[in-house]
Amino acid sequence: MDARDIITVGMSAERQITVALEQTVQHFVPYMPAVFATPLMILEMEMASGEAIHPALPQGWVTVGTGVDIRHLTPALVGQVVRSTSKVITVEQRSIGFDVACWVGARKIGDGKHLRGLIDVAAFTARFKDW
Length: 131
Fold this sequence. Notes:
This protein is α+β, with helices and mostly antiparallel strands. The chain has a single domain, classed as Hotdog Thioesterase (Thiol Ester Dehydrase, Chain A, Roll), CATH 3.10.129.10. The protein contains three helices and five strands, in the order βααββββα. A five-stranded antiparallel β-sheet has the order 1-3-4-5-2. A hairpin with a 3-residue loop joins β3 (81-91) and β4 (95-104). The protein starts with 11 loop residues before the first strand and ends in a 5-residue tail after the last helix. This is Thioesterase. InterPro entries: FlK, FlK-like_dom, HotDog_dom_sf. Residues 21-120 form the Fluoroacetyl-CoA-specific thioesterase-like domain. CoA binds at residue 65. It comes from Rhodopseudomonas palustris.
């Protein structure tokens, strides 16, 4: 399957979460401050990216993350609402590129680029049956 047949530049999505203590760096490293953990910010960016294109995918096909180039600019505190945005900027045969960002209100807390690869789930999982 060629992603260019089903995915178009400009497809987008956004999602929101309210930062919980379990999503802070302090939850994982007790001596660190209780601010939104960078890996979980990146996860939200990846989730928004997947949601931007998933409705266009045929049954049995998904996308998986293949690359991130992200900056974490400022903290988000417990209880703050983080809005993650993602927009398709490139489409190749099996690779989709996204502009991603996270916001608390009008303040950008992170941004960057994300890549996702298009896969046939059955073919992908069959490769690992003997591992």
